[in-house]
Design goal:
13 strands, membrane, 2 domains, alpha/beta, 35% helix, lipoprotein, single chain, Spore_GerAC-like_C, GMP Synthetase, Chain A, domain 3, 35% strand, Spore_GerAC-like
Length: 364
């Protein structure tokens, strides 16, 4: 009897709690995507808000406000709505390229001090105004559309691991720089077009989605990612190129700092297992010799691509790979300023050991 009474009381508490939450959710609007633009010396903040009309139904709207600082975004937005704005479920923050070039450090440090900001928040850069990009994204009627695009491309595509937790590690850690997904619009649809690379908190350059895959290989054990490799036909006089698409199914990077050479060199060994499908009709992989030769060809191509990517980062004085952090871990008297003075001329050597797990015809 006591047990039944207790269960009844618990049920009542749960019911009251659900009713109370339902009333609260009807009185608030949730910020789920936010954007930052520069308009002269002022900041333009835009948000996609979600309002819950009834159980199972929600609507979203785009709201904008202008300020001298990004810090009072929420108070200013609150003056434009009849419902209280909450941002504890925010999943995406988008910066225009112009804003990112001036520095996103104040936003990062502000979010870092705010307990309402979750570590899973994604950040990105767009070549357009952030408000215009969000306008396009809002047509999907999914308030977290951009965040889910990033997460999907991390899990199954070319993007390396990223969220606010990783960003803070790269931003505050010595010997490494942050990178964020780069968005643009293609034929009316939002597209992830590569990565935005930063020096400290300022946007420096954009790299392609191909190079995002190379960064993924160089910084983590990757199970996904694709790279299209051009191949000349067997006719030496032909200028036509066929292509082979390789899909990574497993990879591992090993780093070694060799100081015994005449000049110190960072040696990077990549072990990559790939799937190859839809090969050109003239390419034959029937024998072990043919397969081994093709693996060496793919490996050499990947080595050159990775080496070129590292050289690009060095020329732009950005370090998304974290080579500075790696050398710091192997050097007793490491100094960040001194290291990046010689960083553009730092010697690196990439060696790829590639194995083909499957080849044939089909979809990747």
């Amino acid at each position: 009897m006591v047990y039944k009474a207790a269960m009844a009381l618990i049920s009542c508490v749960i019911a009251v709690g659900c009713s109370s939450n339902q009333q609260i959710i009807n009185k608030i609007q949730l910020v789920q995507t936010a954007g930052y633009d520069k308009v002269g010396d002022r900041s333009l903040c835009s948000v996609i808000l979600t309002s819950y009309i009834e159980k199972g139904k929600a609507s979203s709207q785009l709201l904008l406000t202008e300020s001298d600082s990004s810090f009072d975004m929420i108070p200013r937005l609150n003056t434009k709505t009849s419902k209280t704005i909450q941002y504890g479920q925010m999943g995406m923050v988008l910066f225009s390229k112009t804003y990112a070039e001036m520095g996103i450090g104040p936003v990062i440090s502000g979010f870092c001090r705010d307990p309402k900001i979750a570590s899973k928040v994604q950040m990105g850069v767009t070549d357009k105004e952030a408000s215009k990009m969000m306008e396009v994204a809002n047509k999907a009627q999914e308030s977290l559309y951009l965040m889910r695009m990033v997460e999907q491309n991390v899990q199954t595509g070319n993007l390396p691991k990223m969220n606010f937790k990783y960003l803070l590690f790269n931003y505050y850690g010595e010997g490494r720089d942050i990178f964020l997904p780069y968005f643009n619009v293609e034929r009316g649809s939002v597209k992830i077009d590569g990565l935005a690379l930063f020096k400290q908190d300022k946007f420096v350059t954009k790299v392609s989605i191909r190079e995002a895959f190379l960064l993924k290989l160089l910084t983590e054990s990757s199970r996904n990612g694709n790279l299209l490799m051009p191949m000349k036909t067997d006719n030496e006089n032909s200028t036509i190129h066929d292509y082979v698409l390789m899909k990574s199914i497993a990879s591992k990077a090993n780093y070694h700092y060799n100081t015994s050479a005449s000049e110190p060199i960072v040696e990077i060994g990549l072990r990559v297992r790939v799937l190859i499908k839809d090969t050109p009709s003239w390419l034959h992989l029937n024998t072990k010799e043919q397969r081994d030769a093709f693996e060496r060809q793919l490996g050499s191509y990947l080595e050159k691509e990775a080496q070129d990517f590292i050289a690009l980062c060095q020329s732009k004085q950005v370090d998304p790979i974290g080579l500075g952090d790696f050398v710091r871990s192997r050097t007793r008297t490491w100094n960040e300023k001194d290291f990046y003075a010689i960083y553009p001329k730092l010697r690196t050597q990439v060696t790829v050991h590639l194995s083909i797990e499957q080849s044939g015809v089909g979809e990747l």
